[in-house]
Amino acid sequence: MLKKIGETRKSFDEDLSKANDLASLEELRIKYLGRKGLVSQLFDSLQDVPKEEKRNVGQVLNELKLHTQSKFDELKNKFDKEKVSSESYIDLTLPGRKREVGSKHILIQTLDEIKEIFKGWGFSVYEGPELESDYYNFGALNFPADHPARDMQDTFFVSEDFLLRTHTSPVQIRLMEQKKPPIRALMPGKVFRNEAISAKSYCLFHQVEGLVVDTDITFAELKGTLVAFVKQFYGKDVPYRFRASFFPFTEPSAEMDVWWQPKGKEGRWLEILGCGMVDPNVLTNVGIDPEKYVGYAFGMGIERTAMRKYGIDDIRILFDNDKRFLTQF
Ligand code: PHE
Fold this sequence. Notes:
There is one protein chain. This protein is α+β, with helices and mostly antiparallel strands. The chain has two domains: about 1-85; about 105-325, Bira Bifunctional Protein, Domain 2 (BirA Bifunctional Protein, domain 2). The protein has eleven helices and nine strands. A seven-stranded mixed β-sheet has the order 1-4-5-9-8-7-6, with helices on both faces. It has a two-stranded antiparallel ribbon with strand order 2-3. A hairpin with a 7-residue loop joins strand 7 (about 250-260) and strand 8 (about 270-280). It is rod-shaped. The mean pLDDT is about 90. It binds phenylalanine.
């Protein structure tokens, strides 16, 4: 019996050394470790062993069982691991994933162009919050509490006192509270109005505010600056006009139009900005002496400016994020 056990162990070791994949290993398992395998058979024949040898033979047989099982487990583990790593190999025949390069949105490009022009004239760029208090958006800009001028800008109120800013003019106030004249500032940003959405109006748009405050500023300088701007931005032959207008925070006030000729359509005047001389009340509100200082301000709509320049006839397409549109610029 001991001899038989020894032979089984030897042949198991030989077979094991020949097993080179999961299939041959499975054959080996059935041959030795299966329910009717050689090791089980040896256990069965243990009953024929004389009583006094049983203990010794049983021990040797148990050792064989442990040996075969652990050797088998070891190799099975190794083959399993190799299988997993071979299945997760990289398939070099698959097509690669193309990385697309992003680009600046046409509105940001337009804003960059505007900034470049004004920077050349000594303007610095400032920004303010999109969530504003009633005071900065209206009160400090000389809108009396119940004045109908507030209706010019239908508003998203977040609470009684806070709202999504309806224009970039509150940044004028924030700037003048911190910085004393001379001021020459450009203040771009998003603004929000509760508008009925159409080809011309959207609930979100962009403005760029301009503010100049010094001791010797005149309306002629305001006009000259804006005319120089539209000529540089649209081309020197662009038809433009100023119309008298009203804003609570400027006096006198005007709006500027440029002629717009969409392809195949009738041309018309397009309003691109509001402007005027800073109202003395506004200067007083920020602690700047209106007897000593004068200023002008303007607020330009970026969407309209871009639409006029690039011949876009529907404002909504600027917010659709349709790549077929965006990649044209
Ligand atoms: N804030 C005004 C608007 O949004 C535009 C404006 C800015 C007018 C500065 C005058 C001076 O309509």
